[in-house]
Design goal:
With about 280 residues, the chain is α+β, with helices and mostly antiparallel strands. The protein is built from eight helices and 13 strands.
């Protein structure tokens, strides 16, 4: 807020100086600089307005559910964009059968469990199977009156799991699929690309209201890692691994070229590639 005040003050000062005080040959530079400050201020305010409008819409949805005494299911995950020669690495979701980007839900660590219960009255998502790799997944129910506070807390990344190595390791190195070597993948580098959050919507499978959130990460392999990924890709598709281009992902597994459904791709993979939520039929 303070920076915006300084922007508008600086704009006014520069324009006044350019209009009435400085030498005539310097007036265009001063007035131009003032206009640039004004334009920057305008677009900053516009951006904030759009962001706050989305927040206002979310707050209104939550208010309605709060009046009704409802709970909201939150599922908090991260996904990797692993692109090799224009195709993305997908793996099979063994619980639901579709294919998706490498990744999964954050884990609720030991110190987080009691905090969630005490602060947000969080309760377990009892419909998730309590398998070893799914135990303590960050999928839970939060009362609507605590929902905004929960979202703000989670997005700060404080006092919760923030490392994204676990799902990569479990799905590609030593867990569900032993596809990549520990020698070439003792660590990984990646960029945070953005965050996709769905609006509050009725869940088809859970018969409740839910919010799904995905942190999108872009893998940055070194030379040895990229070579190994290319070698994996050269082996082609398998029951566990698929390589899909942008068009196939946009159509959720339907290939317009062959006019057939090759396999089912999860909607959240499309959202991650586009870095925005979209309503699917």
């Amino acid at each position: 807020m303070i920076s915006k005040v300084f922007q508008i003050i600086a704009a006014i000062i520069l324009i006044v100086l350019g209009k009435f005080i400085v030498a005539e040959e310097l007036r265009p530079e001063f007035i131009g600089a003032g206009c640039i400050f004004f334009i920057t201020f305008f677009f900053t305010v516009l951006e904030d307005g759009i962001r706050n409008f989305k927040r206002l819409k979310l707050s209104w949805q939550i208010f309605i559910l709060r009046v009704q005494g409802k709970k909201i299911r939150f599922s908090m995950s991260y996904l990797y964009l692993i692109n090799v020669d224009g195709q993305y690495l997908l793996v099979k979701n063994t619980n639901f059968g579709h294919y998706q980007l490498v990744g999964g839900k954050y884990k609720r660590l030991e110190g987080t469990q009691q905090f969630l219960k005490n602060t947000f009255n969080a309760t377990e998502d009892i419909k998730l199977p309590e398998k070893l790799l799914m135990k303590d997944d960050f999928a839970l129910f939060i009362p609507a009156n605590k929902a905004i506070s929960f979202i703000d807390w989670f997005n700060k990344g404080k006092d919760r799991e923030i490392n994204h190595w676990r799902e990569f390791y479990e799905e590609l190195i030593d867990g569900k699929g032993k596809l990549l070597s520990k020698k070439n993948f003792p660590y990984i580098n990646y960029n945070f690309k953005g965050r996709v959050t769905t609006p509050i919507k009725k869940s088809k499978g859970w018969d409740c209201y839910e919010v799904l959130q995905y942190d999108i990460l872009e893998l940055l392999p070194n030379i040895e890692q990229m070579n190994e990924l290319k070698e994996l890709k050269s082996k082609g598709d398998s029951d566990y691994v698929k390589w899909a281009d942008h068009e196939l992902i946009q159509n959720l597994g339907y290939d317009k070229r062959s006019r057939e459904k090759l396999y089912i791709i999860g909607q959240h993979t499309k959202w991650a590639i586009n870095q925005k939520w979209s309503r699917e039929e």
